[in-house]
Amino acid sequence: MYDSIDQLFTRAESLLAAGMHRRAARLLRDIATSPETPDSARKRAWHMIGEPQISADEKRRQGMEKALQAAQRHQQLVDDRKLVMAYFNQGYSAPEVQSMTGRSKAFVAAWHKKWADLQ
């Protein structure tokens, strides 16, 4: 029985490594609730069940941070567009605007063209 339990733990670890947390948790739950499983293996199984939840929480937090960073980048882009348009309205040339904003030549040229179309 010990060999099969070790094989089940190995299988659960490979499932966790592959990102299949639900399948691994189900397998570990089966190990932990089996009456034939020794106490040390049960404790190990319950401990391993708790670990993926931490990983899932970490992934959720990282996803929220990534969404926040994307929103900040978008807001920076909108602010830079407004700033570029304001500089063009003040009479600055495209190279001057590029050096003042730090934006690429293509970005400034695209907004210069849109600004010229509005004039």
Summarize the structure.
The chain is mostly helical and 119 residues long. Helix content is 86%, strand content 0%. The protein has 5 helices and no strands.
Protein architecture, described:
By secondary structure, the protein is mostly helical. It has one domain. The chain is 86% helix and 0% strand. It has helices at residues 2-17, 21-33, 39-89, 94-101, 105-118. Helix 2 (21-33) packs antiparallel against helix 3 (39-89), helix 3 runs antiparallel to helix 4 and helix 3 (39-89) crosses helix 5 (105-118). The longest helix is centred in the middle third of the chain and has 51 residues, at 39-89. The termini are far apart.
Annotate the secondary structure layout.
Elements lengths: L1 H16 L3 H13 L5 H51 L4 H8 L3 H14 L1
Helix pairs in contact: 1-2, 2-3, 3-4, 3-5, 4-5
Q: How much of the sequence is in beta strands? A: under 5%
Helix content: over 70%
Alpha carbon gyration radius: 28 Å
Order of helices and strands: HHHHH
Mass-distribution shape: rod-shaped
What is the domain total for the residues?
1
Give the beta-strand count. Answer: 0
- Report the major sheet: none
What gap, in angstroms, lies between the N and C termini? Answer: 82 Å
Q: Kindly name the structural category.
A: mainly alpha
Low-confidence stretches: none
Number of helices: 5
Determine the mean pLDDT. Answer: 90
